[in-house]
Design brief:
It is a single chain. The protein contains 7 helices and 15 strands. By secondary structure, it is an alpha/beta fold. It has 2 domains: about 100 residues, 2-Layer Sandwich (Nucleotidyltransferase, domain 5), CATH 3.30.420.40; about 100 residues, ATPase, nucleotide binding domain (Nucleotidyltransferase, domain 5). The strands form 4 sheets. A 5-stranded mixed beta sheet has the order 3-2-1-4-8, sandwiched between helices. A 5-stranded mixed beta sheet has the order 11-10-9-14-15. The longest helix is centred in the last third of the chain and has 19 residues. The structure holds beta-D-glucopyranose.
Length: about 230
């Protein structure tokens, strides 16, 4: 029997949820609700319970916008400091009564995109900038490239965030994304870089270099199914 996974993508702006089976078939409508503010654990867990209500699934996957180690969230720059040291996987198992896995959101999206050969990377452009790194299909977790400081002390995320896009306009923002990719390429020497997250929609494939592939924005939830076969 194919298992159904409740795949949840916790974003700084929205929480998305969809039930998918092992072959990626969707059950019921995909849901999107605004991330509660302040985005502390209690209201976010209540929102997850709301999206789970009335749905049939055997397991839960969560893409979380921060560092996650063994189901425990360590950082959440675009949510709330209250996530530091929070046992998210264990709490979800208790609240939803199903096995749960939690992974960094960009890491999880990449699981739905990679081919599994050589060095592959993913950059997600949304509220923040997420990054994933894979070597022959194996995830190197929690890269956190978005917070790498350079130049005037700002980091990549400060330059290409959602907020900056609104402030500087799409043309300058796209120039910055190109610049970011050009800086990353000679350091990480990826074979392919997948560009995902909600704001990747501002690009067409033709505007991107050959080794950069525009990703399906559904990867943010689709990776949740792969999370159960990835390790
Ligand atoms: C976080 C990353 C996350 C990214 C996208 C960043 O601020 O540090 O862990 O992947 O936002 O949500």
């Amino acid at each position: 029997m194919l298992l159904r996974t409740l795949c949840i993508d916790i974003g700084g702006t929205n929480i998305k949820a969809e039930v998918l089976d092992d072959e990626g078939r969707s059950f019921g409508e995909p849901l999107r609700i605004a991330t509660p503010r302040p985005a502390e654990p209690v209201p976010v867990l209540a929102a997850i319970e709301e999206v789970a209500r009335g749905r049939v699934f055997e397991r839960v996957s969560v893409g979380f916008p921060g560092v996650v180690r063994q189901g425990v969230t360590l950082t959440a720059p675009n949510l709330d400091a209250g996530w530091s040291g929070f046992e998210l996987a264990r709490t979800l198992e208790a609240r939803l009564g199903k096995p749960a896995r939690v992974c960094n959101d960009a890491d999880l999206a990449g699981l739905a995109l990679i081919e599994g050969r050589d060095v592959e990377m993913v950059l997600t452009l949304g509220t923040g900038m997420g990054a994933g790194l894979y070597v022959d299909g194996r995830l190197v977790p929690n890269l956190e490239l978005g917070h790498h400081p350079f130049g005037d002390g700002r980091c990549y995320e400060d330059r290409v965030s959602d907020r900056e896009l609104a402030r500087i306009g799409v043309d300058e923002w796209k120039r910055r994304v190109h610049e970011t990719i050009a800086q990353i390429r000679p350091i990480w020497n990826f074979r392919t870089l997948y560009l995902g997250g909600g704001n990747a929609r501002h690009f067409t494939q033709r505007e991107l270099p050959e080794d950069v592939v525009l990703a399906d924005n559904r990867a943010g939830v689709m990776g949740g199914v792969r999370l159960w076969s990835a390790s």
